[in-house]
UniProtKB/TrEMBL annotation:
Gene3D superfamilies assigned to the protein according to its UniProt record, in alphabetical order: P-loop containing nucleotide triphosphate hydrolases
Domain ABC transporter span(s) in chain numbering: 2-232
Protein name, entry field: ABC transporter
Key word Coiled coil present: no
Length: 345
């Protein structure tokens, strides 16, 4: 659906995209990267609105340098920044955008009503947009991107400025754009966690370079550790320590903290290296033998951010001690520092 080949965009002082090659299939794809990573620049090039310095790109089989107008007929675009005229109602604005996309007047009005209803703005559609909340404005921007029934939409930071509830609602809406209407989505975010639930595929860029492109499932594959938490009892005032000793005596590999899996420790949790069903049975029987209560035993899945935390820790460990400042070269941790962190999802 989107193919780029060694795509670069250089401004006088900064390289926004650096030989980026990606191949994005239909579905919902997240494009994630810290602020300044090059996400908006890539979208503008893909829409044929800005020329690349070098490299090639196709959208829906159309070339971005030659076929910009044809691409924009088939692709919807929700820009990042506030771009709504305050004195105009959502209906007037979205009808106008539909007409600009080539819909005849009646179809434009009908599609506008349908689309605004879909994004949950039906009641307020005749009010001037200057009085809208950030969430309502984001919904109008989404509606105008969908109104001409595109095959694909580019959504640039659609959750920006939203509170957690608004963010969840927007992510749900984005998922339904694909499931209800079959429209493919490329959605950008600087938050790793929120894309985990919404996207089939995630592309991570940093400093204009491709860091990773994988299915969400691959990112969040099951870890090989069982997280186990138990109660204390009169007989075992420190149930966790007793369980640890018993499991080690039985030959299990146990740790308190994130091991190779990158799982974070939370005090009373033990991580037991799992080697199949028998590990579950061993934990169950050992807990029962000690008379402890089993609070939880679960095989966790990775969060996307953990994948990058691990990669960064490995890079830092591999760096020569004399040059710690340059250690973690491709700066994936930007993404986690930005608050996307493991549990934003
Ligand atoms: N017109 C321009 N002239 C000069 N530099 C630019 C221009 N547009 C973008 N840049 C620079 O290119 C880099 C990538 O910017 P871009 O807007 O694509 O990042 P982004 O990942 O979308 O981040 P954000 O969400 O903060 O916009 C940044 O360093 C930015 O300052």
């Amino acid at each position: 659906m989107i193919v780029t080949e060694s795509l670069s965009k250089r401004f006088p002082r900064v390289t926004a995209l650096d030989r980026l090659s990606v191949d994005i299939a239909p579905g919902v794809t997240g494009l994630v990267g810290a602020n300044g990573a090059g996400k908006s620049t890539l979208i503008k090039i893909l829409l044929g609105l800005a020329p690349a310095t070098e490299g090639t790109a196709q959208v829906l089989g159309l070339d971005v340098t030659r076929d910009g107008a044809a691409i924009r007929e088939r692709v919807g675009y929700m820009p990042e920044h506030d771009c709504l005229p305050p004195d105009v109602s959502a209906t007037e604005f979205v009808v106008h955008m539909a007409r600009m996309s080539g819909l005849p007047p009646t179809a434009a009005r009908e599609r506008t009503a349908d689309t605004l209803r879909h994004v949950g703005l039906y009641e307020e559609r005749y009010r001037p947009m200057g009085g809208y909340s950030t969430g309502m404005k984001q919904r109008v921007k989404l509606a105008q991107a969908l109104v001409h029934d595109p095959q694909l939409v580019f959504l640039d930071e659609p959750t920006n400025g939203l509170d957690p509830v608004g963010r969840d609602e927007m992510l749900g809406l984005i998922r339904r754009v694909h499931t209800d209407f079959g429209i493919s989505v490329l959605v950008t975010s600087h938050l790793l966690g929120e894309l985990e639930r919404t996207c089939d595929h995630v592309v991570v860029i940093d400093g204009g370079k491709l860091l990773r492109s994988s299915s969400t499932e691959e990112f969040t594959q099951a870890t090989t550790s069982l997280a186990v938490e138990v109660t204390d009892t009169d007989r075992c005032p420190d149930g966790t320590a007793a369980l640890r000793a018993a499991l080690v005596a039985a030959g299990a590999v146990v740790s308190d903290a994130a091991g190779a899996d990158g799982l974070s420790s939370s005090g009373h949790v033990l991580y037991v290296e799992a080697s199949g069903e028998q590990t579950h049975d061993l934990v169950r029987d050992t807990v029962a033998g000690l008379g402890l209560g089993l609070i939880r035993m679960e095989q966790r899945r990775h969060h996307i951010a953990e994948v990058f935390r691990d990669a960064d820790a490995a890079a830092a460990a591999a760096a020569p001690p004399a040059t710690p400042a340059t250690a973690g070269a491709p700066s994936a941790p930007h993404t986690t520092q930005d608050g996307g962190a493991p549990d934003a999802g």
